[in-house]
Design brief:
Alpha-Beta Plaits, globular, binds 2'-deoxycytidine-5'-triphosphate, binds magnesium ion, transferase, DNA_pol_Y-fam_lit_finger_sf, DNA/RNA_pol_sf, damaged DNA binding, DNA synthesis
């Protein structure tokens, strides 16, 4: 599979086979005519999914912080771009992602605020999700300002309590209908969904002071598509009978959520440009080009069919921060930038309360061939002493030590004595563990939402793909990537933080799919010169002693301590050589997939997305370098076991006590 295919596969991966739905779409009228509208069925006959998208999100946050900005045209600026603007400014011709100079030309009285520090946006974003979750736990975040919610159960409950079909009504708009001609009693579930949406929007406005739009439909794809029909601060229901209309109104295949740049390009090469083109294209022909499952998914998408579940988002699995620039070419600047990024990231990490186990540094070099999309990373474990400082009052000390670690990683990638030209630096904490679990290398992610917020603190079962990385701030892509190619030369802001892709509903667009991030895992167990031999003896065989030598002495000592070596069982300690996985499915590239992490050879992966890389290499599925699998243990089977079981097994193997049988050699992965 070539890179494009991988990316395309990924764009589509979450839009799973749901052709059955399209073959037999739910008929609201049949429900009504059979009289079941008011008789609650035990199993919901169809889902009710809400999609919320806040109005001019960053601008609203700024207006809450400074109410004087409410009545002026306001633009939120990152580098030279207006990433969003309030509706007063929109009324005067300013648009999202306009350059500052164009915006000023359109609206000379435009007031600008700098939006490069995402702290307030991030905090508000989580408050919104938390508030929604207090009504129903099935909430999935999409970027900073969007949430899906599956309210099917709530609707069913309400339906049971509703005796009279005549009392149904729609709140807000109904797509392609005037309120009068849409008969709510024919669509009782969607009608009730519209009431729930209105109530939730009112709660968000009342409690947090934010307005937003909502879409109400039978799946995520349709809810997302319909929610922006009337803006701002309005909501729209999509009836099943109008699915064809809304799909037909999309101006091109790229407008279909889930169809990314690569897919659209390939479709275009087949002469398929409009939604209609793809709808009528024979499935068999499509399957010849894309393979059966992808072809099917594509067909489903253009038919408005999507059975992907709303997957509760959970806490991010990593926290990161980054900045991009036109040119950075001195080590001094690199140190300063890393220091600056670390100061704020460590603060965020401290607020989060968990202790990171892994630190990663990512750089992007300027090259003429691949100007913007080539990232390289090195990562290393974080000694417990530093981890503890992060979560304590010794934050500043932690920053100093982390800067020093970061610079060692930097030197593994860049020869500081030669010329270099960087355009981005990203730092990331991952493998976040609850306190107490950190030392043992075990533990689960706790509720991110319970860290700062209100007394209502829903506990989440985190999904696997959460990443508080620089991506998807706007619900699709990160700022930097979402800026159009013409604008890219200005090197966007990307002080970061987004959650990465939400499991089950990943929107990929534009150039993010082209991003080629090279991540090499770096063996980082270290020894001071004086103790080099003894230390080297203690190092696992595939650890690079050279890297070890580069680290500060106290870190080396700690890393050599038995406690720490023991905890390393959750790391892959390999030297960084990069290769591209040849058989990469979109799923295996995803975070948390054992198939992607159980590479007991040199572990390194060329990923197509930052967010995948962010998360994909942190999971405790690797054979620890100081503990080999017994000969008859199938690594793939091992990878399917829960992390705590793996840990236990590994410690038992260390004592040479356990021999596992090899039950099968099937591949791990989705559905296995
Ligand atoms: N954002 C960003 N960079 C982008 C796009 C968006 O930083 N390239 C940020 C700013 C937005 C926020 O994400 O406020 C949400 O993005 P939306 O696309 O939802 O835009 P808004 O919420 O600002 O406006 P709208 O009212 O159109 O939803
Ligand atoms: Mg928005
Ligand atoms: Mg949005």
């Amino acid at each position: 599979m070539n890179n494009s295919d991988d990316e395309m596969e990924e764009e589509l991966s979450e839009w799973k086979n749901s052709f059955v739905d399209s073959a037999a779409p739910f008929s609201t009228s049949s429900v009504a005519s059979s009289g079941s509208a008011v008789k609650a069925s035990s199993a919901p006959s169809h889902r009710v999914i809400l999609h919320f998208d806040l109005d001019c999100f960053y601008a609203q946050v700024e207006m809450i912080r400074n109410p004087a900005l409410r009545c002026v045209p306001l633009g939120v600026q990152q580098k030279y771009i207006i990433v969003t603007c309030n509706y007063v400014a929109r009324g005067r011709g300013v648009t999202k992602l306009m350059s500052v100079s164009d915006a000023k030309e359109k609206c000379p009285e435009l007031v600008l605020v700098n939006g490069e520090d995402l702290t307030h946006y991030r905090e508000m974003s989580y408050k919104v999700t938390e508030l929604l979750m207090s009504y129903c736990p099935l909430v999935e975040r999409l970027g900073f300002d969007e949430n899906f919610m599956d309210v099917t159960e709530m609707v069913e409950q309400k339906l049971k309590q509703t005796a009279e079909p005549g009392c149904f009504s729609f709140k807000g708009h109904v797509y392609n209908h005037s309120s009068a001609d849409a008969k709510a009693s024919d669509h009782p579930r969607l009608a009730l969904g519209s009431h729930i949406a209105a109530e939730l929007r009112e709660a968000v406005r009342g409690k947090l002071g934010l307005t937003g739009c909502a879409g109400i439909a039978t799946n995520k794809l349709l809810a997302k598509l319909v929610s922006g029909t009337f803006k701002p601060n309005q909501q729209t229901v999509l009836l099943q009978e109008n699915v064809g209309d809304i799909m037909g109104c999309l101006s091109g295949l790229r407008k279909v959520p889930g169809v990314g740049h690569q897919t659209a390009k390939k479709l275009q090469s087949l002469g398929l440009v409009s939604v209609k083109d793809l709808q009528v294209y024979p499935l068999n022909d499509l399957a010849r080009q894309f393979g059966g499952p992808t072809a099917q998914r594509l067909k489903n998408l253009v038919l408005g069919v999507d059975d992907s579940p709303v997957t509760p988002s959970g806490a991010p699995q990593s926290l990161s921060d980054e900045d991009s620039f036109k040119k950075m070419s001195s080590t001094k600047e690199v140190v300063e930038k890393i220091q600056q990024l670390l100061s704020s990231l460590v603060e965020r990490m401290q607020k989060d309360g968990r202790q990171p186990q892994t630190f990663r540094l990512t750089i992007r070099r300027f090259t003429t061939a691949n100007k913007w999309f080539s990232r390289e990373s090195r990562q290393c474990p974080i000694p417990n002493s530093i981890g503890q400082k992060i979560s304590s009052e010794n934050r500043e000390e932690a920053v100093v030590q982390l800067v020093s670690m970061a610079m060692k990683l930097f030197q593994k990638m860049v020869d500081g004595s030669a010329d270099f030209h960087l355009t981005l630096i990203n730092i990331c904490f991952s493998n976040l563990q609850t306190r107490g679990a950190a030392v043992s290398g075990r533990g689960a992610i706790t509720s991110f939402f319970t860290q700062n917020a209100s007394p209502r603190k829903p506990q989440l079962v985190p999904s696997q793909n959460q990443d508080d990385s620089p991506r998807n701030a706007g619900g699709r892509l990160d700022t930097q990537i979402r800026i159009s190619p013409q604008q890219k030369h200005v090197a966007s802001k990307s002080s970061t933080s987004s959650e990465g892709a939400s499991h089950g509903f990943k929107w990929k667009q534009d150039s993010v799919v082209e991003e080629n991030q090279t991540t090499a895992c770096c063996s980082e167990v270290f020894c001071p010169d004086a103790t080099a031999n003894t230390a080297a003896d203690q190092l696992p065989p595939d650890v690079d002693p050279e890297v070890f030598k580069l680290l500060p002495e106290e870190i080396q000592k700690e890393l050599l301590s038995p406690l720490f070596l023991n905890s390393l069982s959750s790391y892959h300690l390999v030297s960084g050589v990069t290769h591209k996985p040849t058989n990469k499915s979109s799923d295996s590239e995803r975070i948390g997939d054992p198939a992607n992490t159980l590479d007991t050879s040199n572990r390194a992966t060329t990923m197509s997305h930052g967010e995948n890389v962010m998360e994909g290499d942190e999971l405790p599925f690797h054979q620890p370098s100081d503990c080999k699998f017994p000969g008859n243990v199938d690594p793939e089977v091992f990878s399917e076991l829960p992390p705590d079981v793996q840990q236990e097994l590994m410690s038992e193997w260390k004592q040479q006590k356990l021999i596992l049988k090899t039950p099968s050699s099937r591949k791990p992965g989705r559905g296995s």
